[in-house]
Every structure is written in C-alpha cells, then in structure tokens.
Design a protein that fits this description.
The structure is a homodimer.
Chain A: H1 4-11, H2 15-22, H3 30-43, H4 49-56, E1 61-67, H5 73-78, H6 83-95, E2 101-107, H7 111-120, E3 126-130, H8 136-145, E4 148-151, E5 161-165, H9 167-181, E6 186-190, H10 197-211, E7 217-221, H11 228-240, E8 247-250, H12 253-265, E9 275-277, H13 284-287, E10 294-296, H14 299-315, E11 323-326, E12 329-331
Parallel strand pairs in A: 1-2, 1-3, 3-4, 4-5, 5-11, 6-7, 6-8, 8-9
Antiparallel strand pairs in A: 10-12
Helix pairs in contact in A: 1-2, 1-3, 6-14, 9-10, 11-12
Chain B binds a DNA duplex through helix 2 and helix 4.
Chain lengths: 344, 344
DNA sequence: AACACGAATGTAACCGCTTACAACCGAGGA
DNA sequence: TCCTCGGTTGTAAGCGGTTACATTCGTGTT
C-alpha cells in the first residue's frame, strides 16, 4: 500500500507537498501539482483514513445507532421498510454532499449494546441516536464526549438536540376524524412496544382525545411489538371482548394490517363493521384491501434534519440544544369508512 | 478527551500497561488491572479509533456500497424494504458478534460515486459491493487494494469473491409452474433495469424457459425501474397490445403489484383473466389481493454469507476466490391462479 | 548470599498524515 | 548590486495508540 512517502519520493517532492495536493491547497505550483497527481494516479495512492483522522482530529464519519426490532430473521425480510431504514437512507443522502461517511449499528437496547455504542463512539465524530436505545443518563454521558442528535427520542430537555415528529397532534387529528367525521363513539386502540416513545405518545394522545369527547370510550389493547403478527394477536383479543369497537386505531401500520386481516378472517367487514386505522403511512398500507387510513410522518425529513444538525454541531456550532418537532399528515383512505379516493 | 497518557498518569502506570489492560492482555497483575480500569471508568476513557487503526493496521470497519435506486424521495418512503436494506441488516447482525462496524454508502453508479468509493476504501478494512455499482475494471482495481466481496453482482470470474442467488433456476421453476401447472401458453414478462444484473438474468431465464416449450410465446415489456409505478406503466403497454398474455411474470414484486393494480383498474380479473407473478417475496406481496405468487430469495442469507466471507478475507484467508450461489424458493399464492393456500 | 528465571512493567520507536514554521527562490525596488 | 517580499517547498514535530525489547522485581536455588 503506497503512502505519502512513496508518492513524495516518486514525485521528487516532500510529503508536505503531497499532502497539500491531496487536500487541494492552492499554494502549490500547477506544474508541481500535476506531477504529484500523476504519481498518485499511477501508484493508486489512497490516504489512510486512520492516519488522517489522527492528525486532523476529524474522522469524517458519523454513527447512527438504532434498535433492531425484527429479532426473528424472517420478520425483517417480510416487513416493510423500517423506520430506521428510511432514516438511514435520508442521512446517507445528506452525507453524499460531504465527505463524511455513515457508520451503522443496530441492536436491542441493553447493557451489552451500550458497550458497543461506547466503543463505537471512538470511531466517529458525532452520533445519531434513533429512538430510545439508551437510558437518558447514558445518552447524556455520550453527549458529553461528542455531538449527539436524538431522533424520535422521548428524552426531552436532556440538554441535547432532538428531532421528532408531532405524534400527539397527528393522533388527535385522526381521532377527531373518526369521531367527528364518522360519528364513531366506541373506539379501540392497539398499542405498541412500551419502550418505543412514539408508541407511548400515540396511545396517550388517542386516549385523551377520545375521552375529551363526551360519550366516547376507548378500549385499549396494549403491548404489541409493531409487527403484523402482534396486530393479529390484538385482533383476537378484541374478538374476545363483549363488543368490538366501531373503530380501531393502531400504533402503527403493520399492526393495523394484521388487525384488519385477522378481523376479515372472522368475517368482519372493514370498514363496514369495524373501521381500522394505522400510523406511519408505509407502502403496504396502500395496497391492502381496503387501503389503510393512516397518519403520515415525514420520516425522511426527520433524518435529513437530524443529519444536518449533527454536521453543524461537528463543525462547532455552539448554539444551545434545540428540539425540533415536525408535523404529521392525515392520510385518508378507505379503511376508516371514507369513500374510495378518486386520485391514485 | 482523555488519552492513554492521562489514564497512565492517573493510575501510576505506563501507557503500555494501560494498552494491555484495554486489550485484555493477561500479563497484567489483577491489582494493577483493577486500578487502571477504575481510572478508565472514572475519566470515561474511550480509545481513539484513528490512533488504534494507525498503529494496529486494522480499522475494524468494513464498508458496504450499493445503489440508491429511489431517487425520488417519496419512493423510498413508500416502497418496501429494499434489497440492500435487508442485506445491511443481515451484515450488521453478523458484525454484532465482532467488534467490527459497518460503514455505508449508497449512490447511483457513475464516476462521481466511484471517487466516493475510492475515498471510502481508505476508511475500511474490506468492502461489500452490492449489485453492479462499479464497472468490472474498477471492481478489480478495488479488490487489489483490499478484500472485496461482491453480492448479487454479475461480474463473475473477476478473481474476487461473489455471493449470489440462482435467479435463472428460480425463474425457470416459476415459468414451468405457469406453463405446466396452469397450462398457460401466451406468456408476458415485465423487465427491470438494464443495469441490474438480477433483472437481466431473470428476463433471460424466463424467456429461454418459455421458448423451450413448443407452442409457448413470450411478450417482453422491457426496462422498468423496479418501482410500482413502472409496473403500472408496463401494464398500460400490455393493454395496448392486440392480445394480453394469459400470464405476466415480472422482474420483481413491486412491479408485479403495479401491474396487478393497473390491470384490475381496467376491469381485468386476476388471476381469472390474467395471472401475474413477481420475484423477491417482499411483505406487500402477501397482503395485496390476490396474494402474489413469487420467487423468494434468501436475501438475508446472502448478506450473512458475504459478511462472513469478507471477515475471513480480512483475517488473512488466502484461499482462491470463490463464487457461491444460493437457491431460490418458489412461493405459490393466488395471483398465478392457484387456489388460496390453506395455511397462513 | 549470590544467582537464575519468569512475571510484570516501563521505554521508546513506529504507524501515515498534517501543518506550523523555517528555508529558499526569483523578481522588483532602492 | 543588495535587499525585500510574496510565493513555493521542505523539515520535523506532533496526533494517540501499540508493541518489541529492555528493565525491574520477587522468588526459589544452590
């Protein structure tokens, strides 16, 4: 593997000059630059990032850590594009305009993963933390060593940057659509993982919205794991109830699809007998029958903002930590009881 | 940021000892080790990966480069879990057992991306290349500087390790099912991107399988881009033909879904009037109506094998380059005309 | 008591690149 | 002709770990 020394020798210059050429400094005579570039091309020199990182105190790498939800191997293959994947693509797109790269690490939250993240922190200039992978204290400790931006995390006010989605507003809007728009009174809710802040927020917002309307009740089935299978399970729980709610909102789309299919299997018409709604607006929701009414999140935007913010921090921005909240969008399709949309 | 020097001073030992403790060497007296560990814990020391990388000649990072297909932002949000995402998760899972991390980079193939990859090669110990991001010559050049394992790449015999799926066999099996199992004679095929080796192979295999049966014909609509939208477009092309094929196979599931939906919009019954099949076995294919018959790929396994192979290479394995081909699996559901499956 | 030897620890060179600072060069000015 | 000065290029000191090799220490031998 050729080094700057090799290039310098072959080009008849010093390593300083080679370095200047590599970094595009303008105080190198064109003729010298060309000679050096020719040698670089010839020997296929690529600077060693470790050496660069050591000397520049900048690794040009940021990390992204998130939860690995699909423990079951096949789950991952089958389920739709995961939240974290969309974020990854978005971040990567932002990074494409820089020469920073993205380092990834997924895992279940827990002590072991914490150690992994800690080791990882030595490899990066900054960190994006998706959802609640870390306990608040650990997050804070991390944030003390390097720039950290949290995405969709609950840890507010922890003195670090957070970019999130306005789950409560979206859920409220959906609840009002079901109640005011369709006149449902007996609502149901299928909850998500307790360790997913989003899931918790959605449940809370839906419940309080429903309860704020006199005469409305909400039957909560807690603790799904965001998978289609857990939606089916929840549906069976619902079927065991004395009366099935007129409308069932779910903490995410995957579970909503599971709920719909299981109810349909039992001969229940959707949305005729029971309306079902989701949250996330994933692709499968558009192709199921009936098409799923849901709340769309600007997931990609979340990643873009977070990445941009992190890069600023790494550049040395010293403005106080900020929490940014992005709006959701109600996506009305057929599963709530609305007529087929004309478009599409 | 504390360094080994700080830790050494505070613990009253030399940097060598600190390093030995960090690396778990057994020639440190327990009492010394504990003292050092205490200091490490106290000051929150995390070794700088650049310095480690420089001195150990090992970065403990591998890279993965792949195509970014969804140029349109919303495409990414809507489409199912992308091939490359599944691979990423699989690789990451393998890495979880090591202390190597995964560096990611997506991009359109092209000169600019090549430069990015080249720079990236300075940051990693090895590289996973998904699909044909690079021209064979570039791939070869890369492979000369560091270990490279190609995934689902067409570049065979390039003297580097390749892990791929047996597309032809899968497609052949599917074609035979349509022809022999259902008796279709006039087949159609909706092709994928010309730069996707998988798409090309699938088309070729399907065509030749169909043509090998006397009396069978195949009507090819080329050049989709693997998106649902391009499936719709292809369907419209098909509708413009004099006669619509009895069965239409598509280069992937997304397009198959688009084809189905567009045909259905025109009042064509599936599979009654036209059978439609896909390739990939993504989640949405299970929830559309009718459920999609398709060919499943062991995508995750692909990633696992490739990652394992790359780690071996990095460890110094010097066995000759090998090409590994994994089998596909025919997934029969309703869109081909088979009765509803009992299970599920 | 002197010695040998293995275990534990310290010393310092080195990994490859960047950059502050020094040195040098040639042209224009005194 | 000598000096000054901007533009180029070279020298060498880090950056923060790792590790070969040297050193020291404690213990059992003779």
């Amino acid at each position: 593997m050729p080094t700057v020394y090799d290039v310098a020798r072959l080009a008849g210059v010093s390593t300083a000059t080679v370095s200047r050429v590599m970094r595009g400094s303008d105080l190198v005579r064109p003729v010298t630059r060309d000679r050096v570039l020719a040698v670089i091309e010839e020997v296929g020199f690529v600077p060693d990032a470790s050496a660069q990182g050591l000397s520049r105190r900048r690794k040009e790498i940021i990390g992204l850590v998130g939860l690995e939800r699909g423990v079951n191997e096949t789950d991952i293959e089958r389920d739709g594009l995961l939240f974290v994947d969309v974020v990854v693509h978005a971040v990567e797109a932002v990074l494409r305009g820089t020469d920073t790269s993205l380092l990834l690490s997924f895992g279940p939250s827990g002590e072991q993963f914490h150690d992994r993240i800690r080791a990882l922190s030595g490899k990066v200039d900054g960190l994006l933390v998706v959802e609640d992978v870390l306990a608040p204290a650990q997050l804070r400790a991390l944030a003390r060593r390097l720039p950290v931006v949290a995405i969709a995390a609950s840890a507010a006010g922890a003195g670090l940057d957070v970019v999130r989605v306005d789950n409560p507003a979206g859920m409220r809007e959906l609840a009002m659509h079901l109640i005011t728009g369709h006149g449902y009174r007996r609502l149901g809710f299928v909850g998500g993982p307790r360790d997913a802040p989003d899931a918790v927020e959605r449940l809370a917002a839906f419940s309080s919205a429903v309860r704020s309307v006199p005469g409305c009740t909400v039957d909560v089935v807690p603790g799904g794991d965001f998978s289609e299978a857990s939606g089916r399970t929840a549906a069976r729980v619902l079927l065991g109830r004395e009366a099935i709610p007129e409308a069932v909102a779910c903490a995410n789309d995957q579970m909503a699809i599971g709920v719909m299919r299981e109810l349909q299997r039992s001969g229940i018409a959707i949305p005729g007998d029971v309306a079902v709604t989701g949250f996330d607006n994933i692709f499968p929701g558009r192709v199921v029958d009936p098409a799923l009414t849901t709340v769309g999140q600007p997931v990609r935007e979340l990643g873009v903002r977070a990445a941009a913010r992190l890069l600023e921090r790494i550049e040395g921005s010293t403005e106080p930590a900020r929490s940014e909240t992005l709006p959701t969008e109600l996506v009305i399709r057929r599963s709530c009881g609305c007529p087929a949309e004309a478009k599409e």
